[in-house]
Amino acid sequence: MFNPKNKLKNYFNKQKLKFGSHGSGRKLNSEAPPPPKPSSKSGSGSSSKDVYIPPERKELSAEAKAAATAALARVQSRDKKEFNTSLAAIQAQVRRELEAERKAKELAGQGTSAAGSGDNTADLPDDERKDLAVQGVYFRCPLISDEVLPRKEWKAKIKEFLYEQLENEKGLSACLIIYNCNIKEKVDACVETLIKCLENILNHPNEEKYKKIRMSNRMFCDKIKVCEGALDFLHAAGFAEIPIDDEPHLIWSEEYLEPENTLESLLDALKCSEPFHLELDRNIQVLLPSQVQKTNLPPDFFRISLEELKREQQLKSEALEQSQILKTKAMREKEELRIVSRYKFSLIRVRFPNGVYLQGTFNVYEKLSQVYEFVQSCLMHEAAEFVIVTPTGQRYVNADLDKSLFDLRLVPTIVFNFSYENESRQLTDYLKEELMLLIQSF
Q: Measured at the alpha carbon of residue 417, what is the angle toward residues 411 and 421, in degrees to the nearest 5?
């Protein structure tokens, strides 16, 4: 049976273990140290023929199954169109589209392709646009539920969840409200002040001045009152609102402490808490050749706002005349860095020899090895060695696996070509059947 109270307590127990391992030298809100880098099996003499060595997997298709379930749920929530999803029908459809693609290329080579008409779809709301490669960026929050939602919806859902827990677990819930419902600048100032208030009471138990806070005090108004959840936390910690000389004060007394709470436990909770981590959902899709023509990305992929993006595009069109000017290598690298720095996420597509495409969403700072693991988890033959190659024929060596998509400039989109490597038998099956059934008519 679902018990939110137990979930919160388990969360704090894990946080104590996590933060305790850093020792006393770890500062509040400091960045956690990066995980140790996996060792590379290839030395400095790695050749361009090095291929990815599949890691051992405890659960062979956990990521693929979770992503497929989420994708199916999203697909089923749309208006359904009649579409034959049997594997035979899908394979026939792929063959027809590949043939159509081949003929279109032949016509284009003969100069008979028609000019594209104007497209005003960019002015439509994102959920109505048909030219987007993906409708948005989606996340999971296992502590709250198994749903897959956009970040904005998760923020509202997390806030609702925490406020629902205030009645039964006021101290811990208020602590998490502080961290999850305020901007970082407010959180840092508020948490630092609250820690000082509690530590003063613990370190000077006989000093009455540390047990009284004037609510009109500038420090209180600027750092505590403005932070959502802070007053609830102080009430749970043993402070009660009592007027003194017709002026509101917060007065601490042990008898005002919430049951099962101690100053020490609340102080620990305050120090080890952090915003709930949202796990990026791959938003896995399996596409037909005709569907990969959609390459526009929604605003969620960008670091900059929609207005800033439009201004950038306008400047880009105005600078077309200057594109003919010869640029130095440094100028080209600076321009490339400026472009890729706009994006928070990258859309990865993998083209299989049978014409089907696998698509997933990645953070730009995820590593190339995670792309390989994602592809491997979707394969019918997970143990088979494979390679993914860029459209220009570039093959990555083992030393590249630990590099981020940003470092490798695989942003904002990239299409890899897939092939099995060093297989004595001819493998013609690629993606798992349950993933092939994700193909939909759009």
A: 125
